[in-house]
Protein backbone atom coordinates (compact mmCIF):
# COMPACT_ATOMS: atom_id res chain seq x y z
CA UNK A 1 0.00 0.00 0.00
CA UNK A 2 1.37 3.38 -1.04
CA UNK A 3 -0.77 5.83 0.93
CA UNK A 4 -1.73 6.20 4.57
CA UNK A 5 -5.35 5.49 3.67
CA UNK A 6 -4.43 2.31 1.80
CA UNK A 7 -2.17 1.15 4.63
CA UNK A 8 -4.88 1.78 7.22
CA UNK A 9 -7.38 -0.11 5.09
CA UNK A 10 -5.06 -3.07 4.65
CA UNK A 11 -4.22 -3.11 8.35
CA UNK A 12 -7.73 -2.77 9.74
CA UNK A 13 -10.41 -3.52 7.18
CA UNK A 14 -8.82 -6.66 5.77
CA UNK A 15 -8.46 -8.48 9.10
CA UNK A 16 -10.40 -11.75 9.11
CA UNK A 17 -11.81 -11.03 12.56
CA UNK A 18 -13.38 -7.83 11.23
CA UNK A 19 -15.46 -9.89 8.82
CA UNK A 20 -17.17 -12.24 11.25
CA UNK A 21 -20.54 -10.76 10.29
CA UNK A 22 -21.85 -10.58 6.76
CA UNK A 23 -22.16 -7.13 5.17
CA UNK A 24 -25.23 -8.48 3.40
CA UNK A 25 -27.36 -9.89 6.22
CA UNK A 26 -25.69 -8.87 9.47
CA UNK A 27 -25.30 -12.48 10.66
CA UNK A 28 -22.12 -14.49 11.26
CA UNK A 29 -20.33 -15.96 8.27
CA UNK A 30 -17.41 -17.24 10.32
CA UNK A 31 -17.98 -20.21 12.58
CA UNK A 32 -17.01 -23.76 13.43
CA UNK A 33 -17.51 -26.76 11.19
CA UNK A 34 -16.95 -30.48 10.84
CA UNK A 35 -14.79 -31.97 13.63
CA UNK A 36 -15.10 -28.94 15.90
CA UNK A 37 -18.90 -29.07 15.79
CA UNK A 38 -18.95 -32.87 16.18
CA UNK A 39 -16.67 -32.69 19.23
CA UNK A 40 -18.71 -30.02 21.01
CA UNK A 41 -21.95 -31.78 20.06
CA UNK A 42 -20.74 -34.93 21.81
CA UNK A 43 -19.24 -33.02 24.73
CA UNK A 44 -22.49 -31.19 25.54
CA UNK A 45 -24.76 -34.24 25.54
CA UNK A 46 -27.02 -34.38 28.58
CA UNK A 47 -25.35 -37.40 30.19
CA UNK A 48 -21.76 -36.48 29.33
CA UNK A 49 -19.53 -36.42 32.42
CA UNK A 50 -15.76 -36.47 32.84
CA UNK A 51 -13.66 -37.13 35.91
CA UNK A 52 -11.75 -34.11 37.22
CA UNK A 53 -8.52 -35.71 36.08
CA UNK A 54 -9.77 -36.22 32.51
CA UNK A 55 -11.26 -32.73 32.43
CA UNK A 56 -7.96 -31.16 33.54
CA UNK A 57 -6.06 -33.25 31.00
CA UNK A 58 -8.46 -32.13 28.29
CA UNK A 59 -7.97 -28.48 29.19
CA UNK A 60 -4.20 -28.88 29.37
CA UNK A 61 -4.00 -30.61 26.00
CA UNK A 62 -6.03 -27.76 24.51
CA UNK A 63 -3.55 -25.26 25.95
CA UNK A 64 -5.87 -24.01 28.70
CA UNK A 65 -3.62 -24.10 31.76
CA UNK A 66 -5.24 -21.25 33.68
CA UNK A 67 -8.84 -22.46 33.78
CA UNK A 68 -10.17 -23.85 37.06
CA UNK A 69 -12.95 -26.40 37.43
CA UNK A 70 -15.90 -26.16 39.85
CA UNK A 71 -14.76 -27.01 43.38
CA UNK A 72 -15.98 -29.99 45.36
CA UNK A 73 -17.09 -32.10 42.40
CA UNK A 74 -15.50 -35.40 41.44
CA UNK A 75 -17.10 -35.31 38.00
CA UNK A 76 -17.52 -32.40 35.60
CA UNK A 77 -20.15 -32.27 32.87
CA UNK A 78 -19.23 -31.34 29.33
CA UNK A 79 -21.57 -28.37 29.56
CA UNK A 80 -19.69 -27.05 32.59
CA UNK A 81 -16.45 -27.42 30.68
CA UNK A 82 -17.74 -25.40 27.73
CA UNK A 83 -19.27 -22.81 30.05
CA UNK A 84 -15.78 -21.89 31.24
CA UNK A 85 -15.31 -20.05 27.94
CA UNK A 86 -18.65 -18.22 27.79
CA UNK A 87 -18.65 -14.70 29.32
CA UNK A 88 -20.69 -14.40 32.52
CA UNK A 89 -23.14 -11.82 31.19
CA UNK A 90 -24.19 -13.80 28.11
CA UNK A 91 -27.77 -15.08 28.33
CA UNK A 92 -29.70 -16.37 25.35
CA UNK A 93 -32.03 -19.08 24.13
CA UNK A 94 -31.52 -20.86 20.82
CA UNK A 95 -34.17 -22.98 19.04
CA UNK A 96 -36.82 -21.97 21.56
CA UNK A 97 -39.75 -24.37 21.47
CA UNK A 98 -37.85 -26.91 19.38
CA UNK A 99 -36.42 -30.29 20.33
CA UNK A 100 -32.86 -29.06 20.86
CA UNK A 101 -33.59 -25.99 22.96
CA UNK A 102 -30.26 -24.44 24.01
CA UNK A 103 -30.36 -22.19 27.07
CA UNK A 104 -27.44 -20.12 28.36
CA UNK A 105 -27.96 -18.22 31.61
CA UNK A 106 -25.28 -15.84 32.87
CA UNK A 107 -22.58 -17.63 30.94
CA UNK A 108 -23.69 -21.13 32.00
CA UNK A 109 -24.88 -23.66 29.45
CA UNK A 110 -27.79 -25.10 31.43
CA UNK A 111 -29.72 -26.89 28.71
CA UNK A 112 -29.32 -28.15 25.17
CA UNK A 113 -26.65 -29.50 22.87
CA UNK A 114 -24.33 -27.21 20.95
CA UNK A 115 -24.55 -27.79 17.22
CA UNK A 116 -24.23 -25.88 13.96
CA UNK A 117 -27.09 -23.55 14.92
CA UNK A 118 -25.16 -22.34 17.95
CA UNK A 119 -21.60 -22.41 16.63
CA UNK A 120 -21.63 -22.74 12.84
CA UNK A 121 -21.39 -20.15 10.12
CA UNK A 122 -24.66 -18.69 8.82
CA UNK A 123 -26.24 -19.63 12.17
CA UNK A 124 -23.97 -19.27 15.16
CA UNK A 125 -26.20 -17.49 17.67
CA UNK A 126 -23.48 -17.56 20.33
CA UNK A 127 -21.03 -15.99 17.89
CA UNK A 128 -23.60 -13.35 17.00
CA UNK A 129 -24.13 -12.34 20.63
CA UNK A 130 -20.41 -12.26 21.38
CA UNK A 131 -19.84 -10.01 18.39
CA UNK A 132 -22.62 -7.62 19.43
CA UNK A 133 -21.64 -7.41 23.10
CA UNK A 134 -17.85 -7.71 22.97
CA UNK A 135 -16.59 -7.21 19.43
CA UNK A 136 -14.32 -9.11 17.08
CA UNK A 137 -11.46 -9.90 19.45
CA UNK A 138 -13.70 -11.78 21.88
CA UNK A 139 -15.25 -13.77 19.02
CA UNK A 140 -11.80 -14.74 17.76
CA UNK A 141 -10.69 -15.79 21.23
CA UNK A 142 -13.87 -17.80 21.83
CA UNK A 143 -13.68 -19.62 18.48
CA UNK A 144 -10.00 -20.47 18.89
CA UNK A 145 -10.29 -21.75 22.46
CA UNK A 146 -13.59 -23.62 22.27
CA UNK A 147 -12.80 -25.23 18.92
CA UNK A 148 -9.58 -26.62 20.41
CA UNK A 149 -11.59 -28.16 23.24
CA UNK A 150 -13.93 -29.80 20.73
CA UNK A 151 -11.11 -31.09 18.56
CA UNK A 152 -9.10 -32.48 21.48
CA UNK A 153 -12.15 -34.21 22.96
CA UNK A 154 -13.01 -35.78 19.61
CA UNK A 155 -9.43 -36.99 19.18
CA UNK A 156 -9.31 -38.53 22.65
CA UNK A 157 -12.73 -40.15 22.28
CA UNK A 158 -12.12 -41.55 18.80
CA UNK A 159 -14.38 -40.92 15.84
CA UNK A 160 -14.63 -43.08 12.74
CA UNK A 161 -17.36 -44.45 10.51
CA UNK A 162 -17.74 -48.25 10.17
CA UNK A 163 -20.08 -50.02 9.46
CA UNK A 164 -38.33 -52.77 -2.25
CA UNK A 165 -39.84 -51.78 -5.36
CA UNK A 166 -43.07 -53.80 -5.84
CA UNK A 167 -45.08 -50.58 -6.38
CA UNK A 168 -42.86 -49.74 -9.35
CA UNK A 169 -43.63 -53.13 -10.88
CA UNK A 170 -47.33 -52.33 -10.49
CA UNK A 171 -46.88 -49.04 -12.37
CA UNK A 172 -45.23 -50.89 -15.27
CA UNK A 173 -47.98 -53.51 -15.30
CA UNK A 174 -50.71 -50.85 -15.39
CA UNK A 175 -48.93 -49.15 -18.29
CA UNK A 176 -48.58 -52.33 -20.34
CA UNK A 177 -52.16 -53.43 -19.74
CA UNK A 178 -53.55 -50.04 -20.73
CA UNK A 179 -54.94 -49.30 -17.28
CA UNK A 180 -52.90 -46.14 -16.74
CA UNK A 181 -54.70 -42.81 -17.06
CA UNK A 182 -52.48 -40.12 -18.60
CA UNK A 183 -51.84 -36.95 -16.62
CA UNK A 184 -53.47 -33.91 -18.20
CA UNK A 185 -51.15 -32.45 -20.81
CA UNK A 186 -48.80 -35.46 -20.73
CA UNK A 187 -48.43 -38.45 -23.00
CA UNK A 188 -48.82 -41.96 -21.65
CA UNK A 189 -45.05 -42.50 -21.72
CA UNK A 190 -44.44 -39.25 -19.85
CA UNK A 191 -47.11 -40.20 -17.31
CA UNK A 192 -45.45 -43.58 -16.78
CA UNK A 193 -42.07 -42.00 -16.12
CA UNK A 194 -43.52 -39.42 -13.72
CA UNK A 195 -45.32 -42.14 -11.76
CA UNK A 196 -42.22 -44.34 -11.70
CA UNK A 197 -40.04 -41.48 -10.46
CA UNK A 198 -42.53 -40.63 -7.72
CA UNK A 199 -42.76 -44.26 -6.64
CA UNK A 200 -38.99 -44.81 -6.52
CA UNK A 201 -38.43 -41.54 -4.67
CA UNK A 202 -40.99 -42.70 -2.11
CA UNK A 203 -39.02 -45.93 -1.69
CA UNK A 204 -35.90 -43.90 -0.87
CA UNK A 205 -37.85 -41.72 1.57
CA UNK A 206 -39.47 -44.69 3.32
CA UNK A 207 -36.16 -46.50 3.77
CA UNK A 208 -34.63 -43.27 5.03
CA UNK A 209 -37.33 -43.06 7.70
CA UNK A 210 -36.68 -46.67 8.74
CA UNK A 211 -32.97 -45.94 9.08
CA UNK A 212 -33.64 -42.75 11.04
CA UNK A 213 -35.84 -44.66 13.49
CA UNK A 214 -33.34 -47.48 13.99
CA UNK A 215 -29.96 -45.79 13.64
CA UNK A 216 -27.64 -45.89 16.62
CA UNK A 217 -27.66 -42.30 17.88
CA UNK A 218 -24.15 -42.78 19.25
CA UNK A 219 -22.77 -43.65 15.82
CA UNK A 220 -20.35 -41.24 14.21
CA UNK A 221 -22.43 -40.86 11.04
CA UNK A 222 -25.54 -39.88 13.00
CA UNK A 223 -23.54 -37.46 15.14
CA UNK A 224 -22.22 -35.60 12.10
CA UNK A 225 -25.61 -35.45 10.40
CA UNK A 226 -27.61 -34.44 13.49
CA UNK A 227 -25.13 -31.81 14.70
CA UNK A 228 -24.83 -30.22 11.27
CA UNK A 229 -21.08 -30.79 11.24
CA UNK A 230 -21.21 -32.49 7.86
CA UNK A 231 -23.70 -34.35 5.71
CA UNK A 232 -27.31 -35.24 6.40
CA UNK A 233 -29.57 -38.21 7.11
CA UNK A 234 -29.92 -38.58 3.35
CA UNK A 235 -26.21 -39.41 3.24
CA UNK A 236 -26.69 -41.94 6.03
CA UNK A 237 -29.45 -43.55 3.94
CA UNK A 238 -27.13 -43.92 0.95
CA UNK A 239 -24.45 -45.44 3.18
CA UNK A 240 -26.62 -47.96 5.00
CA UNK A 241 -29.81 -48.28 2.94
CA UNK A 242 -29.77 -47.67 -0.79
CA UNK A 243 -28.48 -45.14 -3.30
CA UNK A 244 -31.85 -44.61 -4.98
CA UNK A 245 -32.79 -43.34 -8.42
CA UNK A 246 -30.13 -41.74 -10.62
CA UNK A 247 -31.43 -39.01 -12.89
CA UNK A 248 -30.08 -37.22 -15.94
CA UNK A 249 -31.90 -34.07 -17.07
CA UNK A 250 -34.47 -34.67 -14.32
CA UNK A 251 -35.52 -37.98 -15.85
CA UNK A 252 -34.80 -41.64 -15.31
CA UNK A 253 -31.87 -42.74 -17.45
CA UNK A 254 -33.17 -43.73 -20.88
CA UNK A 255 -30.30 -43.20 -23.31
CA UNK A 256 -27.64 -45.72 -24.27
CA UNK A 257 -28.03 -48.64 -26.66
CA UNK A 258 -30.95 -48.88 -29.06
CA UNK A 259 -34.16 -49.44 -27.08
CA UNK A 260 -32.24 -50.09 -23.84
CA UNK A 261 -29.77 -48.35 -21.57
CA UNK A 262 -26.98 -50.96 -21.64
CA UNK A 263 -26.50 -54.39 -23.17
CA UNK A 264 -27.16 -56.00 -19.78
CA UNK A 265 -30.91 -55.49 -20.18
CA UNK A 266 -33.60 -56.61 -22.60
CA UNK A 267 -34.95 -54.23 -25.20
CA UNK A 268 -37.73 -51.92 -24.01
CA UNK A 269 -37.15 -52.99 -20.41
CA UNK A 270 -38.74 -50.50 -18.01
CA UNK A 271 -37.70 -51.98 -14.67
CA UNK A 272 -36.17 -49.68 -12.04
CA UNK A 273 -32.72 -51.28 -12.33
CA UNK A 274 -32.70 -50.95 -16.13
CA UNK A 275 -33.34 -47.21 -15.85
CA UNK A 276 -30.81 -46.24 -13.21
CA UNK A 277 -32.29 -47.26 -9.86
CA UNK A 278 -29.56 -48.41 -7.44
CA UNK A 279 -30.83 -50.67 -4.67
CA UNK A 280 -27.34 -51.19 -3.22
CA UNK A 281 -25.68 -48.96 -0.64
CA UNK A 282 -22.18 -47.61 -0.20
CA UNK A 283 -21.17 -50.03 2.54
CA UNK A 284 -22.12 -53.12 0.55
CA UNK A 285 -20.96 -51.71 -2.78
CA UNK A 286 -22.57 -51.51 -6.22
CA UNK A 287 -22.45 -53.83 -9.19
CA UNK A 288 -21.14 -52.80 -12.62
CA UNK A 289 -24.44 -51.49 -14.00
CA UNK A 290 -25.18 -49.51 -10.85
CA UNK A 291 -21.74 -47.89 -10.87
CA UNK A 292 -22.22 -46.97 -14.54
CA UNK A 293 -25.58 -45.29 -13.91
CA UNK A 294 -24.29 -43.57 -10.78
CA UNK A 295 -21.36 -42.10 -12.69
CA UNK A 296 -23.70 -40.80 -15.39
CA UNK A 297 -25.68 -38.82 -12.81
CA UNK A 298 -22.56 -37.61 -11.01
CA UNK A 299 -20.97 -36.42 -14.24
CA UNK A 300 -24.06 -34.35 -14.97
CA UNK A 301 -23.99 -32.89 -11.44
CA UNK A 302 -20.30 -32.02 -11.78
CA UNK A 303 -20.89 -30.25 -15.10
CA UNK A 304 -23.84 -28.31 -13.69
CA UNK A 305 -21.78 -27.14 -10.74
CA UNK A 306 -18.85 -25.95 -12.85
CA UNK A 307 -21.10 -24.15 -15.33
CA UNK A 308 -23.11 -22.43 -12.61
CA UNK A 309 -19.91 -21.28 -10.93
CA UNK A 310 -18.64 -19.78 -14.16
CA UNK A 311 -21.90 -17.96 -14.87
CA UNK A 312 -22.44 -16.60 -11.36
CA UNK A 313 -18.78 -15.55 -11.10
CA UNK A 314 -19.00 -13.51 -14.27
CA UNK A 315 -22.29 -11.94 -13.16
CA UNK A 316 -20.72 -10.91 -9.84
CA UNK A 317 -17.70 -9.45 -11.61
CA UNK A 318 -19.90 -7.31 -13.84
CA UNK A 319 -22.01 -6.20 -10.89
CA UNK A 320 -19.07 -5.31 -8.65
CA UNK A 321 -17.37 -3.38 -11.44
CA UNK A 322 -20.50 -1.33 -12.02
CA UNK A 323 -20.76 -0.46 -8.31
CA UNK A 324 -17.13 0.24 -7.47
CA UNK A 325 -17.37 3.99 -8.09
CA UNK A 326 -20.19 4.44 -5.57
CA UNK A 327 -19.24 6.00 -2.23
CA UNK A 328 -21.09 7.00 0.93
CA UNK A 329 -20.50 10.69 1.62
CA UNK A 330 -20.52 12.64 4.89
CA UNK A 331 -24.20 13.53 4.47
CA UNK A 332 -25.00 9.77 4.23
CA UNK A 333 -25.93 9.99 0.55
CA UNK A 334 -24.59 7.47 -1.96
CA UNK A 335 -23.03 9.15 -4.98
CA UNK A 336 -21.13 8.17 -8.09
CA UNK A 337 -17.99 9.69 -9.58
CA UNK A 338 -20.05 12.43 -11.25
CA UNK A 339 -21.51 13.38 -7.85
CA UNK A 340 -24.96 12.19 -8.87
CA UNK A 341 -27.07 11.05 -5.93
CA UNK A 342 -27.89 7.35 -6.22
CA UNK A 343 -29.47 6.99 -2.77
CA UNK A 344 -30.30 9.60 -0.18
CA UNK A 345 -29.38 7.11 2.55
CA UNK A 346 -27.08 4.15 2.15
CA UNK A 347 -29.15 1.01 1.72
CA UNK A 348 -32.29 3.17 2.10
CA UNK A 349 -32.11 2.83 5.90
CA UNK A 350 -28.57 3.96 6.74
CA UNK A 351 -27.84 0.76 8.68
CA UNK A 352 -24.47 -0.96 8.32
CA UNK A 353 -25.40 -4.68 8.35
CA UNK A 354 -22.03 -5.62 9.86
CA UNK A 355 -22.84 -3.50 12.91
CA UNK A 356 -26.44 -4.72 13.16
CA UNK A 357 -28.15 -7.83 14.45
CA UNK A 358 -29.15 -9.40 11.14
CA UNK A 359 -30.26 -6.04 9.78
CA UNK A 360 -31.95 -4.87 12.99
CA UNK A 361 -30.67 -2.30 15.46
CA UNK A 362 -31.61 -2.08 19.12
CA UNK A 363 -33.50 1.04 20.16
CA UNK A 364 -33.48 0.14 23.84
CA UNK A 365 -31.67 2.56 26.14
CA UNK A 366 -29.94 0.99 29.12
CA UNK A 367 -30.09 2.95 32.36
CA UNK A 368 -28.27 2.23 35.57
Explained architecture:
By secondary structure, this protein is mainly alpha-helical. The protein has three domains: 10-157, RNA polymerase Rpb1, domain 3 (Enzyme I, Chain A, domain 2), CATH 1.10.274.100; 166-303, Orthogonal Bundle (Topoisomerase I, Chain A, domain 4), CATH 1.10.132; 326-362, no CATH class. 44% of the residues lie in helices and 9% in strands. It is built from twelve helices and twelve strands. It has a three-stranded antiparallel sheet. Strands 10-11-12 form a three-stranded antiparallel sheet, with no helix packed on it. The protein has a two-stranded antiparallel sheet with strand order 1-2. The longest helix is centred in the last third of the chain and has 36 residues, at 288-323. The two termini are 45 Å apart. The relative contact order is 0.10.
Amino acid sequence: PQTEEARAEAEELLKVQEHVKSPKMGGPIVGMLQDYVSGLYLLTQEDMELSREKAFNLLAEAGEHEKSLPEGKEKVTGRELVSLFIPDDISLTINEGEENNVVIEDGELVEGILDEGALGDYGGEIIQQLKIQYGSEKVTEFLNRVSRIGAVYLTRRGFSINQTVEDADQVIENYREGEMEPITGKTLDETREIRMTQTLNNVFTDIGEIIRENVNEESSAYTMADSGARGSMENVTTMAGLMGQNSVRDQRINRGYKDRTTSHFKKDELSPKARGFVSSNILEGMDAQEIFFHQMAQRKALMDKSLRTKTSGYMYRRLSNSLQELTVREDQTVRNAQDDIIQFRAGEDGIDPQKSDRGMISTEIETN
